[in-house]
Amino acid sequence: MAKLAPSILSCDFARLREELLLAKEGGAEIIHIDVMDGHFVPNLTFGPLMVEAVRKILPEVVLDVHLMISNPRSYVRDFARAGADMLSFHVEAVDDFDAVIHEIDKNGLKPGVALCPGTSLDVVDHILPKLAFVLLLTVNPGFGGQKFIRGMEEKIVALRKKLRELGLSTDIEIDGGVNEENIVFLASCGASIIVAGSLIFSHKEGIRERVRKLSEMIRLL
């Protein structure tokens, strides 16, 4: 069963509490938080204080924090204390994957790695058994609202096949370019967590209704 993960990157921050509560009312079980440092990616977004604020608003929802930053190991404890549940870091940002995964485990979080569109799946073969999830970016990192990169569906299928062959139940999370026309197809390719931002928070239909509708579309896949 695939799950929807609304991304706060597309929220109206003047109405953050209201919009997050509407997402929860619509059935959101996971909230996605993109952390960008202006170094690993050109944009600059949130830090642990934002995670702490979201945790106070939604004490029971899973907080999925995606670190698009250099030197992620140094910040694991801060995000754990702020209330994160899932924490992913970019393989392109570090040399020692195992050290970062160990730090995430040590702080009681579910470890994940994120891969940019051009990064081969082979890079993470040796650490797959240690991961709770793999986050595949289906747009180039740094900005919301981009179009899905054609061909990334093949990467999802390949990773799902690899995980099955290894007997692993690791989640495949995707982020970028998800729309109402491709969300069911992407879930059918093997994505089990689907991040969506503007598709939810910038739609005229309403946040609660959008979360409910999209979740139902992918629920049985």
For the biggest sheet, the summary is:
8 strands, parallel
Count of the domains: 1
CATH architecture assignment: Alpha-Beta Barrel
Fold-level CATH name:
TIM Barrel
Q: Percent of residues in helical segments? A: 25-40%
**Proportion of strand residues:** 15-25%
The SSE string, one letter per element, is EHEHEHEHEEHEHEHH
Straight-line N-to-C gap: 5 Å
Strand order of the largest sheet: 1-8-7-6-5-4-3-2
Shape: globular
Cα gyration radius (Å)? 16 Å
Chain oligomer state: single chain
What would you say this structure looks like, in words?
This protein is of the alpha/beta class. It has one domain: Alpha-Beta Barrel (TIM Barrel), CATH 3.20.20. It has eight helices and eight strands. The chain has an eight-stranded parallel β-sheet with strand order 1-8-7-6-5-4-3-2. Helix 1 (16-25) runs parallel beside helix 8. The longest helix has 15 residues, at 152-166. It is globular. The N and C termini lie close together (5 Å). The model has no long low-confidence stretch (mean pLDDT 94).
